[in-house]
Amino acid sequence: MPSEIRHDWSREELLALLGLPFPELLFRAAAVHREHFDPALGQVSTLLSVKTGGCPEDCGYCPQAQRYHTGVDATKLMDAGKVLEKAR
Fold this sequence. Notes:
By secondary structure, the protein is an all-alpha fold. The chain has helices spanning 11-18, 22-36, 80-87.
């Protein structure tokens, strides 16, 4: 039976968890994950670029900004309907 999800952690409990050796923390996280999900299944995710390059904003870190010359052709913003179709 899966353990109950808690939202009432005390500061001391959180600090105790963070103080655990990493392998122990990883082991505990895997155990909790197995309580809620089939460990034999994996999730497949894909990225969809709804606009590539040529962004007029310059966040200073994003390679999509116009100031970077990446050799990738800029594309217009995808139609919202197409994005929703791909998401489904």
